[in-house]
Every structure is written in C-alpha cells, then in structure tokens.
Hints:
The structure holds 4 protein chains of 4 kinds.
Chain A: E1 6-17, E2 20-32, E3 37-41, H1 48-56, E4 64-72, E5 75-76, H2 82-88, E6 93-96, H3 100-103, H4 110-121, H5 126-139, H6 145-148, H7 158-169, E7 176-180, H8 188-205, E8 208-213, H9 216-222, E9 225-230, E10 233-239, H10 240-245, H11 250-258, E11 277-289, H12 294-300, E12 306-318, E13 322-326, H13 333-341, E14 348-353, E15 356-357, H14 364-369, E16 370-373, H15 387-397, H16 404-417, H17 434-446, E17 452-456, H18 464-481, E18 484-489, H19 492-498, E19 501-506, E20 509-515, H20 516-521, H21 526-534
Parallel strand pairs in A: 3-8, 3-9, 6-7, 7-8, 13-18, 13-19, 16-17, 17-18
Antiparallel strand pairs in A: 1-2, 1-4, 4-5, 9-10, 11-12, 11-14, 14-15, 19-20
Chain B: H1 2-27, H2 33-37, H3 44-54, H4 60-72, H5 86-121, H6 126-140, H7 143-157, E1 170-172, E2 175-177, H8 182-215, H9 218-225, H10 230-268, H11 273-282, H12 286-314, H13 316-319
Antiparallel strand pairs in B: 1-2
Helix pairs in contact in B: 1-4, 1-12, 5-6, 5-8, 5-10, 5-12, 6-8, 7-8, 7-10, 8-10, 10-11, 10-12, 11-12
Chain C: H1 2-17, E1 24-29, H2 44-50, E2 58-60, E3 66-68, E4 71-76, E5 83-88, H3 102-112, E6 126-133, E7 136-141, H4 160-165, H5 181-184, E8 192-198, E9 202-207, E10 221-226, H6 230-238, E11 244-245, H7 250-257, E12 262-277, H8 298-307, H9 310-317, E13 322-324, H10 338-341, H11 349-358, E14 366-372, H12 379-391, E15 396-402, H13 404-412, E16 418-424, H14 430-438, H15 456-465, H16 471-488, E17 491-504, E18 507-508, E19 523-524
Parallel strand pairs in C: 1-10, 1-11, 14-15
Antiparallel strand pairs in C: 2-3, 4-5, 5-7, 6-7, 8-9, 9-10, 11-17, 12-16, 12-17, 13-17, 18-19
Helix pairs in contact in C: 8-11, 14-15, 15-16
Amino acid sequence: MSEPIISVRNLVVEFPLRRGLFTAVDDVSFDIMPGEILGVVGESGAGKSMTGAAIIGLIEPPGHIASGEIYLKGKRIDNLPPEEMSRLRGKWIGMVFQDPLTSLNPLYTVGQQLIETIRRHLPMNEAQARQRAIDLLDEAGIPTPESRIDSYPHQFSGGMRQRVVIALALAAEPELIIADEPTSALDVSVQAQIIKVLKKLCESRGAAVMLVTHDMGVIAETATRMIVMNKGKIVETGSVGDIIKRPKEDYTIKLIEAIPSIKDETRRHEAPPTSTLLVEVKNLTRDFDLSPGFFDRLLKGAKRNVVKAVQNVSFDIRKGSTFGLVGESGSGKSTCARMLVGLIKPTSGQVLLEGQDIAAGLTQERRQKVQMIFQDPYASLNPRWRVADIIAEPMHALKLVSNRREAEDRVADLLRRVRLDPVSMRKYPHEFSGGQRQRIAIARALSSQPEFIVCDEPTSALDVSVQAQVLDLMRDLQDEFGLTYLLISHNLAVVRQMADDVGVMHSGVLVERGPVDAIFDDPQAEYTRMLLNAVPDISKVE
Amino acid sequence: MLAFILRRLAQSIIVMAVVALIAFMLFRYVGDPVASLLGQDSRLEDFEELRERLGLNDPFYVQFGRFIGNALQGEFGISYRLQQPVSELIISRLPATIELAFASATIALVFGLTLGVFTALKPRSFASGVIMTLSLVGVSLPTFLIGIGLIYVFAVELQWLPSFGRGEVVDIGGWRTGLLTETGLRSLILPAITLSLFQLTLIMRLVRAEMLEVLRQDYIRFARARGLSKRAINFGHALKNTMVPVITITGLQLGSVIAFSIVTETVFQWPGVGSLFINSVQVVDVPVMAAYLMFIAFVFVVINLIVDILYFAVDPRLRVGAGRR
Amino acid sequence: MRKLLITASVLALGLAIMPASAETIRWARNSDALTLDPHSQNQGTTHTFSHHIYETLVDRDVEGNLIPRLATEWSVKEDDPTVWVFKVREGVKFHDGAELTAEDVVFSLDRARSDKSNLKQLHSAVASVTAVDDFTVEVKMTGPSPLYPNNLTNTFIMDKGWTETNNAVEVQQAGSTDDNYAVRNTNGTGPYILVSRDPDVRSVLKINENHWAESKPAITEIIYLPIADNATRIAALLSGEVDLVQDVPVQDVERLAGTAGIRVETGPENRIIYFGYRLGEEPLKSSNVTDKNPLADSKVREAMHLAIDRNAIKQVVMRGQAVPTGVATPPFVNGWTPELDAYPEKADAAKAKELLAEAGYPDGFTITLDTPNNRYVNDEAISQAIVGMLGQIGIKVTLASRPVAQHSPLIQNAETDFYLLGWGVPTFDSAYIFNDLVHTKEGQYGAYNPSGYSNPELDKKIQSLATEIDVEKRNATIAEIWKTVQEDRVLLPIHNQVLAYAMKDKFTLAVHPENQPRIYEVTIND
Amino acid sequence: MSSTNNPAVTEQPRSRFQRIWDSDIFFSFRRSPITIVAALVTLVLILSALFAPWIAPYDPFNPASLNLMDGFTPPNSESMMGNYFLLGSDHQGRDVLSTILYGSRISLFVGISATLFAMAMGISLGLLAGYRGGTIDAVIMRVADIQLSFPAILIALLIFGIARGIIPPSQQENMAVWVLIIAIGLSNWAQFARTVRGATMVERQKDYVSAAKLIGVHPLRILIRHVLPNVLAPVLVIGTIGLALAIIEEATLSFLGVGVPPTQPSLGTLIRIGQQFLFSGEWWILFFPAMTLILLALAVNLLGDWLRDALNPRLR
C-alpha cells in the first residue's frame, strides 16, 4: 500500500469562547489514501467541517489547532507559515464549499477566476490557462464552455455553479479535495449529478476526496470508507457498507436507525380507514406577475412575464390522514401550502374544508381549524417573545381563552404534550435547540385546537436524530388529537414514512398522486421515477 | 440600461419639481425681503410699492408658476441683494466651490479608502484601534470648531497658511481657478481639510464595515482555499466587492460635500456658492436661496445618475442579463 | 533687506516722476457694498464704497461740518428762501475723460429723486432742479428748507452722457428683472477708479491720476475685502493678510492695540443705541399683565431708566468702547446738550423698585425684548445685560435675538413690545430723530416709532422744524421737544457707539463719525 | 455554517442581574475600557445636567442674580465683586461652570428630544414602508432620499425659517426650543426610516409573521408587537449616533445664531459667544464649553460605536 496523502494525528481544535474553551475537534486521527473517497459524517456541531478546515488551514480565528499534527504526503503542514500554506492550497489540497451561490465572486467571470487560480499554481501563460479552464469546464459538464467561460456566476444555475466550483477546486490538480457538504444546498436531481461529476473528476485524476456531509445517503452512494463523528470525536471508522449495515457503537446504531429510507415500508402511522374528506383542493391556480417595469417594456419590448406558480392542482385529504406533497424547490408546493392556510389568495380554484369553500378569505373558523408549522424554527418564533406568549398568541387572537391564568394553564399543558418542561414557558426561543424550537412551534399550532395542520418542511432544518424525534411527536399528536396533516417535503424518505397519500409536484403541476406505496413502488410519471432514482439513500449502499 | 436611466431621469424630474416647490415655498417664509432691502430711511409706501413690484402680493401659485417657468430657462431672477442675475452669480461662484469640494473629496476618498482598507485588514491591530478612535473624534468635532481651530493654529499662531479667501485666481475661459497660483493652493489647504474631515471619517468607517463584511463571505474563503495570494484576495477580490456598496454612499456623500461646504465656506470666507447662500439667507435674498436649493438638488440628481452608471460598470449582475429564471 | 532696498529705490524714483509712490492697502470689513449704482441703495456700506469712486456736492469733515466737494459754494437764493444755489467745481473730469458740468449735476439730482431711487426721501422737498449756466445749479424747494444741503452728503454725481449711452438712466431697483449697467460699472469723478469687482469677495480700485484735488492720496491701490466672520477678519489682520480692518469687535481692541505692528484708532460714531417700548394703553403682547400696559405708566419707564447701569455696560460689555448717555442723540447732532446727556452714575435698584410698587407692580411683570444680533456693536450682549438689570427690579425679560433682516420688520410693522435699535443721524440734526422715532406713526413720519406714542402738540412742533428758517427759534423748538421726550421717557438711551479701526502701524486713518472712512485720507508713516 | 456557539449552556436559574451581567452585550462592554470611560463620561454629563440646579454654584438662567461687574473673571479666581469662579465667568458675569451645566441640560434635552422625535417618525414611516411596500414605500423612500441628499443643517435651517414665518414673533422665544427639536428631528428621520424599512422587509418575510397573520392578528398589532421589537437593535445604534449628531447639529444651529435665546444658552450658543473672545485673551469662555461639547459628542459616539459592534452578531 502506498503512503497516505493526508495523515491526521491526534488533532485538537479549540475555540476560546467567553464561557470557556470549546473543543471543536477532539483528538482526531485518520488517514486518507490516494484515490480514496473518505466520507465524514455527523450531525451539526460534530466537528466534521472543522476537521476539513484544519487540514486546509482555514480555521476562522479565534479557533486554532491546539495540538496534534497533520501530514501531507509525510510532510508536516499544520505549522507552516501562512504564505507557504497558501501556496499549498489549491495546488495540493482543493476545497468545495456547501453553497455554490456564494462561493464565487460575483464581480468576476468564471473564466477570470479559473485563470487566476491556474496561473497562481501552474506555469502557464494566459492563453494556455484559458484553454485549460475551458477543458476543465467541459469536464465538469458545463455545455459550450467556450462561450460560457466569459459568463458571470449569476448567469449560471445553482447546479452549474457547483460544477464551476468543482472545476475551480481541481484547477491545479490537487491530490486531495475536501468537499464540505457539496450538495446540501441543491435539489435532489441536481445533487445526484454533482456527486457524479465530483466522483468522475476525482477518479480520472486519482485525487482523493474527503467528503464531509450530514447526509448518510450521499456517503452511502459515494464513499468507500467513512468516519462517524460526534461532539468533536471520532465514534466509528470503517467501510461504508460495514457501518451502515452493521454499526457497532451505540451512537452509530441510533443514528442509522433514525435515518428514513425510501425503501422502508414500515410507516409511523396508518390513517384510520374512514372515507370522510376533510380537505378538498379543486383546480387551485396561482399566478405571479413578474413583469418588468413600464420603461423596460416600452424600450426593450420586454414582454409581460406571468409565472404560473401553481396550475390546476387538485387533491383530497381524508380526515385523520397525512397527505405528503413532494417536489423540488420552485415546484410550487410551498405556494400551495400557503394558499391552503390563507396566507396567499389563489388566482382561481377552491379549497373546501368539510365541504365549505374557505379560499375566499380568513374566517374565524378557518383560522382556528387550520394551522401551520414552518420550516425554519429559528425564523418562525419571534425571538423577542417569551415562549408562553408565543404559544398563547393564537388563543388570545382567536379569543379562545378568557384570562391570562387560563391561557397559562393551557400553555403548560401544551408544553407537556410536546414533551417540554412547562417551566420553559418563561424562557426566550434562543435558549432552546432547533428541535425544541420546532416543538414550541408545534405547540403554538396546537393551541387553537386545529383539525388540519399544514407542515411546510417541518424537519428539513434539523439533524436526523432530532428529525426522528419530531416526526415521532407529530405521529403521537396525530393519534392523540385525530389531526389531519398536509406534509410538504423535499425529503422523499420522510414522506414515505409519514404519509398515507402522496402528491408529486413539478413546475407548478401535480404530476402524480395516489397512495404512498403505489407511488414509491410503482411510479407512473417520468418525473417521479427520475426523482426516486436520484435520491441518495442509505438503502443504496452496496 | 437605457430604460434604467430613463426611469431614473423620470424620478429625477419629480425630485426636482418637489425641491422646487419646497425651495420656493420655504423661502417665501424665511423673512421679509422687503424690510432688509430698504434702508433705514424707507417709508411705508416704499414697502408696499416694493412688495407689489416683487410680486409678493400675488397669490402663492402665481408666484410659484412664475418661478418654475423662469427656472426652466435657467432664469432665477435678479438677486435682491447684489442686483445681478442669480444664474450669473452662481456660475461665477461655482468654480470656487467645485474646486474646494473636489479637493476635499479627493482627500476624503484617498485617506478614507486607505484607512478603511487598512483598519479592515488589520482589525485587531493597535493602529486600527487608534485610527478608529480618532475617526470618532473627527465625527464628534463640529465643523465650525475645526475651522476655527485650524485658523487659530496655522494662520494666527504659526502664520503658515492664509486664514481666508482663495488667494490669487487665474481666469481660464471664464473659469477662475485658484489651483494654478501658489497663494491659491495655500489658501485651499485649510478649508479643504476642514471640509473633508467629516466625509473622510464616514467613508473610512463605511469602507471598513463593508470590507469586513465582504471578508466574511464564502467566496473569500473559497479564494483562500484556491490558494490565491493574500494580495490578490484582499485587493483583487475583497476590495472590488467592497466598492459596490461604497460607491453609492460615497457618491452621495461627495455630492453633499458641495452643500455641506456652507459652514466651511463661512468660516474661511471662501467665495463659493455656500457663502453666497449664507449671505443671502441673512438678508432673505429669495432668488439666490431658491436657486441654490435647486442647484443642490440638481447636483444630487446628477451624482445619483453617475452613481447608477458606475454601479452598472462595476456590478455585472446589473449589466449582464441573468441566465437563471 | 533686499525688499527694503527695492522699496526705497522705487520710492526715490517715485518721488522724482510720480506724485506718490505705489502703495496698496488691503481693506477688510464685514460686508460688501450692495451695488455700484450710487442712487440705488441708501445704505452706509454702499455709500462708503461709492465715496471713493463718485463724489457728492458737499461732504462732511470729521467734526461733522459741511465742507465743499463738487460744489465750491452754496447758499439760499437772496430773494427766494425756497431756492438753493450751488456753484459746481470747474475743471473736474469723469474717469472717462468727460468734463463735469451743471448738466450732470441736474441729471444726477433728478435721478436721485426719481421714483425708483432709494434716496428720494432725502430730496422729497425738491420741486425742480435747473442749470443756470455751465457751473451753477438752482434747486427749487416746495417750501423753505434750511437744512437741505445736509441731505446731500450721500448723493453722488454721475455723468449724464455715460449714463444715457449705457441705458442706465433708470435706477436699478431691488427685485428688478433687468440687468443695469450702472450696477457693475462706474464712471465717477472720485479719487479712485474701479479696476475689478467680484461681489462679496474682492474689489480693486486704483488711483485716479487726473483727480481735481491738489493733494494726491498716499494710497494708490485699494483692495477691498469683505470678511463677514469677526474671528476670520481679525485673524487675517493678525496673520498679515489684510492691512486695515474697519469693523473691529470691541473685545479685540485691547489685544490688537497691544500687538506689535498694529495700530488701533478709536472714535465715537454718530449713532445712538437705545431701547424702545410700546407705551400706548393697549396691553402688551408678550406680558403676563394682560389687562393693561404696565409701560403706559411713566413711573415704570422711569424705574427702567434707573435700573440700568450704563457704566457697567460700557466697562464690561463694551470694554470701554462706548459713550454712555441719557439722551437719544449723539453729541454730533444739533440739539444735543450736556444737560440732556446726563445719566445716573449707578443703577438705583431700590428706587426703581419703589417706583414699580407705586405703579402697582411690586412683583414686576414679564415682557419680551427683541434684539438684533448682527447689526450693532455687541447688540445682543447689551440686550442680555439689560435683561439682567431689569431682572433685578423684578421685570422678567425674555430675550428674542434675531438677525437684523428679521428684526427690522418687527419694528416697522409695530410687532414688538420692547426692542433695541441703533439710530444714525446723517443730517446731524435732531429733526431727523424726531421725524422717525418720536412723531406719531402716520404718513412719512414715525416709520420707526412702533411705540404707540402720540403727542399731537409735539407732532406739530416736529413738523414745523422742516420749514423754520430762523435758526434761533428752530433750536428753541428742538430744545422744547427734547424736554418733553425726556420727561415722558419716550426712548431709553444707552450709549453712543465707539468705533475702532485696526491697521498695520504703517498706516494712519482716523475714525469717521458716520463710519464712512475715506481711504484717500490715509496717511503713511515712514 | 449553522450556529453552533451554544456549547453546554448551564441550566441553573440565574438572577436577573446575573443574566444581564453575563449577557453578550454586557460582556463586550466589560471588555472595552474605552467604552466604560465613555459610558461614565456620558453618565456624569447627563447626571450633572439633570441635577444642574442643585450642583451648579450659580443660577445663570436667572438674570436677576447676575452682576455685570463679575464679567470676564479668569478661571479659578475671584471677581472684583468677590465671587469665586472655578472656570471663570463670561461677558455677562455668568459662571462658566454653571452655564455649561445648564447649557448641557438644554443641549441634551434638545438632542434627546429631537432624536426621539426623529426616531418615532422614522420608525413609523419605515415600518409602514417596509410592511406595505408598493407605492407608499416608493413615496416614503423617495422623500427620504431627497431628504438625505441635503445636509441636515440646511434642512434644519429651512424648517427654522418656516417656523419663524408661522409663529407670531411674541411667541417665538418660548417656542424656540421646540422649533429646534422639530427642525433637528425632521432633518434626521430619514436614516431611521431607511434602516427600519430594510429590517422590516427582512422581518416581514419571516415565518413568525406568517404565523401571526395566519391566526388573524391585526396588521398594526403585527407591526408593533412582532416586527418592531426585532428591528430595534439597528435603531438603537443609529439612535445613539444620531444623538451625537443632533447635539452637534444643535450646536451648529446655535452657532449660526438660529438656536435658543442667549439668556438660556445651550453649549452651541456658549461656543458662539465664546468664539468672540478667541483673540482677546478670554479663552475660557470658548474653551470649556467647546471641550464639554466635544467630550459629550465623543462619548456618545463611542457608545454608539460599541453598541453597533455589540449588537451586530456578525462582527462578534
């Protein structure tokens, strides 16, 4: 066996914070072999990104390597002076960041950024560098690279930008690429392509990859060996197949258990076999007028531009069931959700709640019966309000309680039901973790005793283990209160676990709907098939 | 781009109209021009007659209509006080103000940018701390005190520099410049410093804040990860991105230098439009005041337009149509 | 040293060929002349500037006596007391070479009394002006006007031909939409010729080599620099950028006088600083006494007179640069007497309080005092001092301080209860004071009398002064009027302003009583 | 990167004081000696202004207590009338120390009131513009743009001018302070409006606003109870810096002679008066008020600067 490209030995990264020293990476050791794809997985705060940053020497102050060593091909690099380290970056170690939208300087063409990087590391003249840049873009799968090279980043879509970023990271033929959540900001279908590109480019060059991600599915599809990290420490190391199929450590076992799979047919909840319809959505349509201003139309002859965000969408939700609405970003699923709760008025179409059309406006009844849980628990709770006030607001607004005492009792009760200590009603949202906040948001939704709750990506901002807890809670509450859910998610596995019926949306159109197993096992629409194929899933591990 | 500029022009016209109304309306109330125009020996009939002749007894809208009509022809009437056409007066005073504004804008820009970049790149150094604290002193000093202080030290005590005026001027095709004579240049130093100090600190703090913000961006981290040199990152990437927001605010700040020069010009007896304005306010010389306000609004509009065009030049996101949806 | 040598050689050369050596003075004051049209503005600063370019028929010396200028002699026509005869100086040339004749004088007087002229009130008694011959002019008055020549000291003579050629016969008026040639161009007979002018910034005058006077001015070039800010003006003198500062703040007199190389000249101005008040029966607008006017009671006015410590104002506020007085007329003026001038050496607060109590105001009352803050020497500070002094006898005064542009209308529109004003007397005669400050506000009288004071008997006496030819009798009437004015305490005089000019000690220039310094009178000390 | 700076928050109940003492803001305060000095100076100046009637050795606003003959006494000496003046006396025989104490009272009152006025106006218009958007937003922001293109001092002069035209002369002096407040306030609202509008546009997109809308909370209540508290942080920063600006602006206006009456001088008026004695040797009449003004403005600016850094999480 050859020499490892990177050897990390007893690495400790510390952040001196005002409340004491925070150890982000704690005694971590591992090697990466040439051509190897090493997956590093862990939940947020596990120290996986920090490990990557430590290798490439980009830890943000005041963080610093407290002890340990890092060797690049046997040469120690963690104590190099900054200028030497910067010559190493790009040339030996490349890096790909999570968000392709912010990774590229908006003021330079991609060509300028590529050529600049190439010439920094390789002895080439402008023309040679340009040719190389075009080749790189071509390899990265950018169509017509000769013309695209002079485009600015904003002229590329997100997926295309990430290809550019990969091309940039590989521009000087580094031996190691550190990819920090390279696909997390992308849609499922794009995600698959990017993983392919990354894999292909690295294979063809024999470059090793350190793939840092929270998504076990991505690792399962890409990596050969993996490291599981938790709270700065390495929990388990081994081949991907071994860890996913035969986890040894308690933490890993729990983690793998918490990850839903699209192949997993065990559902968390089964709707009672009633046929009463609670919600009927009929031909729901919504247009957004994105026309340019008067002067542009006049002078440029620009046309009116009406975007059909949602077109003719119809579906029913049975009482006590969960309807899953899946689709990628921009598919119109959130617009749908917002029309259902009354935050957006439909251009046309009907929403019937127990047979009554509620699309017209916000009636007291609708406000009480229909509630919503939002995606980002950080933005959905007013940071300046105490938890008690947040949860009690619907009660006061809808006049469901007569005095503060009563409200407080109800809040305490609700907190208990979402498995939180009633004492915490005196606290502010920032004193809670993401999962706890989402529980608070659920408690708020429940406080008006609704029948129907629209859940817009309720768990996509959460770690998998927390996601599992929240989903469990949602299931318990559904049993307890006989709730009906509309679950909107881009995560097909979550939908498979939770929903009784599924609708698939694409570009504002509902392409397919039906019972959950039928859709997942035997998709009819072309789009659904593509989507299911593209999803990186732990079941796909060999 | 053309559409954009046209839209801006349309807005500018509205702005000018509003300012014209304000200019006219407000100054109509500042005081009674009649009383200050006539001497100690004037009689009551003289007052009445003068009011009538100045049209001050006409209804408000008639006066305003007359004002707008004349303004469109660049005609702001005759200064009550100096009995010369206002437009001529302003034009003859303009070189002084523009040279002063230009000099202080240059000082403010050069030092503001340099210091701003320096303090952003070395945010934790001792020098940055000193510069930041000193900049606060700069903001906390009223302009008039700075001027008086500089005069006292450099003109009276040390007698190094002149205390007032703009020295000898050379007439070049109607533009009287003080930049070509030694006394003219020496006279420029103190007022230019006084006027620039406030803008300098503003620009410096702005550049620092924006640059710190930019340095925190992903693309800077990515540029580092690509192994670019510190120089290329700081000046090639960070500075250029810093300039985008800085251009707008700085542009407007520099525009307001012209208007801001009122106090400085007064303290240094600088013969520009600002001191013309203050002198006119004291005797309620309405035509001059109205014209001055319109002039400032015009400067604002023009600078806004230049800033917009610069924005186009710097930021490709505006210049090049987006390929995304 | 080298410079000195050059100067010396130039001087030697100059003595041989030229009447005077080249000598420039840089003259700074607080504001610029408003216009160059000599008949457009009746305003001191403008007149001062015009006196160097244009000339008047008669002039006044430093003592205030009339002296000949373009008129060599003047008298009332023997057989007609309503006609004044002026002999015009011969051999006088305008700057453009034209000769001065009686025609020019007639033209100028007609222009000065024309409708649009700002000087017309000075000539309101003129019926017609005619040229008798090339060098004699007769002015026919509507009635006997014994003091008419006094009104001519600021009426400048223009060249008829030049004015007509350049379409400037009509006087430029404030607010006019036309540009007038005479506003920016000059053609006078005066000792200096305008070289360049940049309003508010800088004007340059050079000596008129063809001037009629036998003695040539020592100064051959004047650079006139308006500097509005007091501190800047003084700084410019201290740093050597100007040679002569006309408006020296009183507080700087001492320091400047003690500075090597700087000379300060001081002297009284023909200007009285006084307070006026509303003394009619109507209640005051700014007082807490709302049912009547406390000032209508002469005891209250007497109390105020007694409460004021004029010497303290002189000593502290004016730094000694004032002549305290008990009468509202400067000593230069016909009618002034030392007896009238007497004033209480010290304030007598006890007696003043007593008087107030007698009048029914043992606890005083409130009132607002309107003061200008940029017109007279330390005007605002004087008013502020008065606020304190009146406060000590229980009159609570609120001070309202404004630039003169906003202060004057209050007086002209009678919108003030209590105000500070300064009054210059260009005619050097008490009638000028009575007409505007004492006479009931009606017609052309009482323009600056917002007090509501109206004494028909007194008004009649005041009006008689205009036409009385008998000097003895006229002076007796003046004395009578002053007696009543003093008894009624119509005006509350404080002091006569003292002016200070500061200059490089190379130059000497005495203070002009009307604050119209003549640069051609500057002498150079070697 | 997700926010991870929450390592092991100890869950012991803490007293309110402890919570404030431990809060991030107060922590950064404790660590910055210059900020502590600035806060102390501000506090001392505010307190001494507040308690001027009890602290000041003389009452300079009571003209009856003044004696002209006390005038121009140098610092730390007795006048010829036998009165002692620590910082000397001015041309009216007023104790400079006392006039500074009373003067800062007026300067601070005007500055604080004007800033509050500007804040109130800017916040309401900013909230309205940011929340409603559309034409209202365009109009408000255009006006703000115009306003911002003119120096505050010019605008204040204008407003002062109109006030002079509207208010009858006999009332002008009593109204002077209020006119000043309105003039300065009106010339500074645009900053607040802009900031609040920007922040509001961000906040109104957040889901907690949607959640409130969903249950039918009145828009006005959403604005005041939900959005407002969340946009206050930048407002506080601008407000502090705006206070320093307002104090300087008041001084400049008073310096130009359009401020409060000289019998009740603010710091700016005192400087205007003192400036007359720059060359005549009575330096203390100018020096002490000018120093006080600079010190006050500097201290408030320092506080604002610190606040900006402390409240901006990205800068921490």
